[in-house]
Design a protein that fits this description.
It is a single chain. It contains no helices and eleven strands. β9 and β10 form a beta hairpin. The radius of gyration is 13 Å and the shape is globular. With 117 residues, the protein is mainly beta. Strands 2, 4, 5, 6, 9, 10 and 11 form a seven-stranded mixed sheet that branches.
């Protein structure tokens, strides 16, 4: 069974870097035909795709976020990570990791991140 679990701090101060990790179980992130994504949902707004990493390590970013977003992976731990630099209160959201095929079929439960002093 495929499972994803996000981890990271729930509170980040403005201008700092947000770092989140997604631990995947039940499937290897470096095999198969799927990619792996980060998606967020700000309060009162819809889902926003942030970026994805393929099984081969290829990365794509949302054009609106790519200037301060970085996605990486650690295949030895079957994890992939998100870094969001210079955060502002507008980056407050529930952050999800998900498996990407035609759509996103498996999701983590999401983690709330608040950007505030």
């Amino acid at each position: 069974q495929v499972q994803l679990q996000e981890s990271g701090p729930g509170l980040v101060k403005p201008s700092q870097t947000l770092s989140l990790t997604c631990t995947v179980s039940g499937v290897s992130i470096s095999t198969g035909s799927h990619g792996w994504s980060w998606i967020r949902q700000p309060p009162g707004k819809g889902l926003e795709w942030m970026g994805s990493i393929t099984r081969d390590g290829g990365i794509s970013y949302s054009p609106s976020l790519q200037s301060h977003t970085s996605i990486s992976r650690d295949t030895s731990k079957n994890q992939f990570s998100l870094q969001l630099n210079s955060v502002t209160p507008e980056d407050t959201a529930v952050y999800y990791c998900a498996r990407k095929g035609g759509g996103h079929d498996y999701w983590g439960q999401g983690t709330q991140v608040t950007v505030s002093l």
